[in-house]
Design goal:
- This protein is of the alpha/beta class.
- It has three domains: about 180 residues, Thiamin diphosphate (ThDP)-binding fold, Pyr/PP domains (Rossmann fold, 3-Layer(aba) Sandwich), CATH 3.40.50; about 160 residues, TPP-binding domain (Rossmann fold); about 170 residues, Rossmann fold (3-Layer(aba) Sandwich).
- Helices cover about 35% and strands about 15% of the residues.
- Strands 3-2-4-5-7-6 form a six-stranded parallel beta sheet, sandwiched between helices.
- Strand 15, helix 17 and strand 16 form a beta-alpha-beta unit.
- The model has no long low-confidence stretch (mean pLDDT about 90).
Length: about 550
């Protein structure tokens, strides 16, 4: 049966399991929007196309399946770039669909043309380095192969964003619907490890004080429960990268917390002082996690690395044992072997001593005193929402030290390319997939003003959301660096904020201004943090700085 290309694209989206698409219509993409009208896919109108890309990314992070966004040609497409670049850095399967001028006016100066012809901007060149696959579809005779390539890039072993740009006239052409039958939809099957695990098993058997360094790869592999059970059975402590917080419930005996330059340093001290074996599970050991690749973290230790991506093995350090494969399958194999050998658990004396020492109050720590309100906020968040919460955090500095993420919660730091203006739209996209999960978007007042308009997207669609704004009237990271490294020569870091209460009123959402711990207590007791839209303003002193150095 003949159907239009626009109808075929919508059916393709449905085959991918996409039930929400985020975007903004324009003349060049209206044929696809028209077919969305009667489909089972809910379209979400955003306030800025960058928000659409971030929403699709937030959806993909929570759903573990493709998210989608759609815009018109020209500025609609170029406004996607930051969000698509973030998805590329995060390896998120995000499908971006854009319109384009009709092929018969390519090179003639059509409105918003981005074909690359006749001096028009070349949209493909703009997206070439931030997508796994991109294609300007000028004809229909190879449409099946294009969709095959797109599907492989979205669902393959190395997922990432895909851009399909479809000219207006091509969207209206007719094709046989059997084109979809030629598109292969690969299953996300387990990647079996190709390297024997005996060497890793031997290292674990003979080590006295091994430590697991769990990265986001553990979560992607669905290995949280296996790693937690393994750690519990053999008394092996676990520290995580920022993106992997909660692989083992933080605040429990075997959790060393988060490893990283903005953390409280507990995990760093244990690794340097006590560990004799480090087992990296899906952790890339990037700048933040590695304390700028501090050699003391690895010195004098055996190192094992497990990752499904062979390019990660040995990329920044030389492991004694490297295994390319699925983390869950590898750890299940190692677990079974050690169990069969009746391997005893490791001694706990050093770990217990370290944990007891770390739990002691730090005394009159002026830095901690300055951030007591943030510490209290994260303590309350962990206590009141121990299950099923979605936390998107653009700030990360306070959460790394103060937020104990349970093994039933989901923490999504703004990693990727660390772009401001990410948390609110990403949280909206996530909540579309998980409508019953309490959702928090945490960000500074500078980042808030880059994306606050998307709160109206939440209002328009009745999407419950808690937006937590850290209000100190400055770009905190810039001010801190200018204080620490540039002789307090402050420039372009301070600003005047709007009245957040009036702003919330204009949005039609609840406003909560937090200056004391008593007001914080009242917020968590009285406010509807599960079914309403809230703008929560936490006041901080702009002159208080975390002690870490973030620039070299």
């Amino acid at each position: 049966m003949n159907i239009s290309v626009s109808e075929l694209i919508v059916r393709y989206l449905e085959r991918l399991g996409i039930d929400h698409i985020f975007g903004m219509p324009g003349a060049h993409v209206l044929p696809i929007y028209d077919r969305l009208h009667d489909s089972g896919i809910k379209s979400v109108l955003v306030k800025h196309e960058q928000g659409a890309a971030f929403m699709a990314g937030g959806y993909a992070r929570v759903a573990h399946r493709p998210g989608a966004c759609i815009t018109t040609a020209g500025p609609g497409a170029t406004n996607l770039i930051t969000g698509i670049a973030n998805a590329y850095a995060e390896r998120l399967p995000v499908l971006a669909i854009t319109g384009e001028t009709s092929t018969y006016i390519f090179g003639k100066g059509g409105l918003q043309e981005s074909s690359g012809e006749g001096g028009a901007i070349d949209q493909g060149a703009l997206f070439a380095s931030i997508t796994r696959y991109h294609k300007l579809i000028e004809r229909t005779d190879y449409l099946g192969q294009v969709l095959n390539q797109a599907t492989h890039a979205l669902l393959g072993r190395e997922p990432g964003p895909v851009l399909l740009s479809i000219p207006y006239n091509v969207q209206k052409e007719m094709v046989d619907d059997s084109v979809l039958d030629s598109v292969h939809f690969p299953s996300r099957s387990t990647t079996h490890h190709t390297t024997p695990t005996a060497e890793l098993t031997d290292l674990l058997r003979t080590a006295h004080t091994p430590v697991i360094i769990a990265g986001y790869g553990c979560i992607q592999a669905g290995g949280r429960d296996v790693v937690a059970a393994f750690a519990e059975r053999f008394n092996i402590p676990v520290t995580t990268s920022l993106k992997a917080k909660g692989v083992v419930a933080e605040g429990t005996a075997l959790s060393l917390g988060c490893l990283g330059v903005t953390s409280n340093g507990d995990a760093y001290r244990y690794l340097v002082d006590h560990a004799d074996l480090l087992v990296f599970l899906g952790a890339s050991f990037n700048e933040r996690t590695s304390y700028l690749w501090d050699a003391k973290l690895l010195a004098g230790k055996k190192i094992a690395q497990v990752d499904c991506d062979a390019t990660q093995l040995g990329r920044v350090f030389q492991p004694d044992v490297a295994i390319c494969g699925d983390i869950r399958a590898v750890m299940e194999d190692v677990f079974a072997t050690l169990e069969a050998d009746a391997t005893p658990p490791k001694a706990r004396a050093l770990l217990d001593s370290h944990q007891a020492s770390a739990a002691q109050p730090a005394g009159d720590d002026s830095a901690n005193q300055a951030f007591r309100l943030m510490q209290a906020f994260y303590n309350q968040l962990a206590h009141r929402f121990p299950h099923n919460a979605l936390v998107f955090d653009d700030n990360i500095v306070f959460a790394q030290s103060y937020f104990d993420v349970s093994d039933h919660n989901h923490y999504f730091p703004n990693s990727g390319i660390s772009s401001l203006g990410h948390a609110i739209p990403a949280a909206i996209g996530a909540r579309c997939f998980a409508p019953d999960s309490p959702t928090f978007a945490i960000l500074g007042d500078g980042g808030f003003q880059m994306c606050c308009m998307e709160m109206m997207t939440a209002v328009n669609y009745g999407i419950p959301l808690n937006v937590v704004v850290i209000n100190n009237g400055t770009m905190s990271l810039i001010r801190k660096n200018q204080f620490q490294l540039y002789g307090e020569r402050y420039i372009d870091c301070d600003f005047v904020n709007p009245d957040f209460g009036l702003l919330a009123q204009s949005f039609g959402v609840q406003h909560h201004r937090i200056e004391t711990e008593a007001e914080l207590d009242a917020l968590f007791v009285r406010a509807d943090l599960t079914g309403a839209i809230n703008l929560i303003e936490i006041l901080l002193d702009k002159h208080a700085f975390p002690r870490y150095l973030s620039a070299r």
